[in-house]
Amino acid sequence: MPIKSGNQEPSAILHIDESTQQGSGHSLLIRCSQCFFVSVAVLLSSGILGLPLKLHRSGFFPFLLTFSPNVLLQILVVYFFVIVLQVCDSALEESLHDDNTYNSLNGLSLVETDTASRNGGSPSTDHANHEETTSNDGAKVDLNLPKRKRFNMQTSSKITTNLHVLAKLFFPRWLRFLVGPLFLIEFTLILTCYALAGSEAAGQLFGINYVYMIPVFVISLSIIILVTYAIIQPIVSVLTLIKGLVFMFVCVIGVSLGSESHNPITTNWKYAADPILFETIALGGLPLCMPMIYEKFGKTKKEIRAFRNSIFSAIIFCALLNVLWAWSVLSVVPQLDSSCRTPTTNITTRLVEVKSQLPPDVATTTVASREMACDPSSSLEAALLSGTITTIPFTKMVIEKNPNMAFCAVLIRIFVSLSTAVSFLVIGASLHHTSE
Length: 436
What we know:
This protein is an all-alpha fold. 65% of the residues lie in helices and 1% in strands.
């Protein structure tokens, strides 16, 4: 039964049409599993590798205090975004668009008023004059319906709920011209980060300069997205399962070695706000891929609830992995390095003396070596200052504490390469879905 009133509660939208099924031969359990793993693929990316670096001053327990509300906020974002997707889907089904563009939902009912009552005619007269024709694509078109309604009957089946359609429905006309470029810029920046990080990790894994790996990484994954788009979610699910197992194994190694070495973990509540930005990045990005996943689910209450709970489970699972990874790193890698905290006045004095006595090229070399006095792989503080990801000092400390764990370096490179590749596939597929 379609919705008959615009006063229907938002949370109940699309829950009434029990006959709509979009399983495509898959059971609900399989679709929920794919939704879970695709969401994990988005969350378990480069953000988790940089998060422990921001804990070098605060420590573990201040991180827990600020990270817990962040998890709750991400769950609320998903909850309300699911409602937005339902409203968008309902709007498409109820023909809230004209020939060229979509109308805003502001002030509009989700159901169009009856043509006969709007024109003052009687239902019996309109029924007697009822005419139908067939369009070029085989769709039945009622010639007595308004032009806007006729357009919807021919094209609504071709329109899917995606970020572009959401912008058309909910944003004013002047803002729609900005949303498209902003979405494109966001997708491009995210894909660029994944391409650079993945190419560097793959280059280290295979012993190839990462510059030569960039075109191979981008072109090969782009071809995979275009060729296997219809089955991209099962592929991503399998790859995410593999990278998740590898990552959990690495975390367990770190925790076990940390319990044996008793590396001290310092806590300073003064810097509790340091990791907030990285916490948001580590759990962000889900709304970009949710419309693509949403297509696989039906519009019944049961399937909408399953879709929402699958994403909730992915957020909680990735939050636990972030906590486990942070504890694993802090248990193995020293947080602070005194050699990185040379007073600025001494560096300035040394700069003046060097520039006054040596040629410019030699002076530059001397200053660079002075600034890099602390080893980036010796502590979290040194890694943060040098722009190195957490895995570099973590790998070094694991091998130092137990040389038999040298294979851990290979596992971490595999994880970083696989993680960025899978995230590239998901975000690229979401861009493909948005541009359809």
